[in-house]
Design goal:
single chain, alpha/beta, TIM Barrel, eight-stranded parallel sheet, 9 helices
């Protein structure tokens, strides 16, 4: 029975208000139980780093995610490994066989020039939905705000359906300082110039998630969410945690 006035959330197969989880090797039995309860509030599942390549029963895992209308894909590190070893054709074949329809083009580990990434996007777009990532996993590598915006524009113009802002699973690189503090000036610049519905902000901790919910709204796209945190995140989105308690119903329709 629903009786509270809560922020309005997107439903069904979402295109925004997305929760993208990071699966770093969740066993099949455990995953089955998690999805039975929380599958309806998970939209995308990244099989983190290059873990998909060594995951037992990976085809069964992909199938399980898809049974709950969750879009699975392999972490960008696997793409980068294949790029480094000139195995892109083999990677495409691997994704076909697994039934994976989404691919991430990233440069979190390798310094792949933007021109090369754009070529990869054009190649994969023929048969896959493409997500690209901006930012480095190396906390010592700094990108100017103008560089962030330049790359994001090029990636969107190339046809990426979403662009991820790098944050790592630790929240200490990319859009975050080494200390874990959010680069708020950068975020303000990005949301001023781009459609928030097309950006997935990596936000691995409750602190990071609440920042974006309060800054953008409950239907902000959030990534690198831990599987065991999805219910708490949904409660945060709905104003059911102290830090998001006073979200107004009107302002929460910002991204609908």
């Amino acid at each position: 029975m629903e009786f509270l006035n809560l922020p309005e959330r997107t439903k069904g197969i979402r295109t925004n208000g997305i929760t993208s989880v990071a699966d770093f090797g969740t066993p099949m039995g455990e995953l089955d139980h998690i999805l039975a309860d929380y599958g309806h509030i998970i939209d995308i599942a990244k099989m983190g780093i290059g873990s998909a390549y060594v995951t037992p029963k990976i085809k069964d895992k992909v199938k399980l995610y898809k049974e709950y209308n969750i879009r699975p894909y392999c972490g960008g590190t696997l793409f980068e490994k294949c790029f480094y070893q000139n195995k892109i054709a083999e990677y495409q074949s691997y994704l076909y066989k697994l039934g994976i329809e989404w691919v991430e083009i990233s440069n979190g580990t390798l310094d792949i020039p933007i021109e090369e990434r754009l070529n990869m996007i054009a190649l994969f777009r023929e048969d896959f939905h493409v997500i690209a990532e901006v930012g480095s996993k190396d906390a010592n590598k700094e990108m100017s705000e103008s560089k962030w915006k330049e790359e994001m524009k090029l990636l969107f113009d190339a046809g990426c359906e979403y662009v991820i802002t790098e944050g790592r699973d630790s929240g200490t690189a990319g859009i975050y300082e080494k200390s874990g503090e959010i680069k708020s000036n950068l975020i303000h610049e990005l949301i001023k110039d781009f459609d928030c519905n097309k950006i997935i902000f990596e936000a691995p901790t409750a602190k990071h998630q609440m920042y974006f919910i309060k800054e953008i709204g409950p239907n902000v796209n959030l990534g690198n969410v831990k599987l065991n945190d999805v219910l708490v995140l949904e409660a945060q989105r709905c104003g059911l945690r102290s830090e998001t308690f006073f979200l107004e119903e009107s302002e929460c329709k910002l991204l609908l």
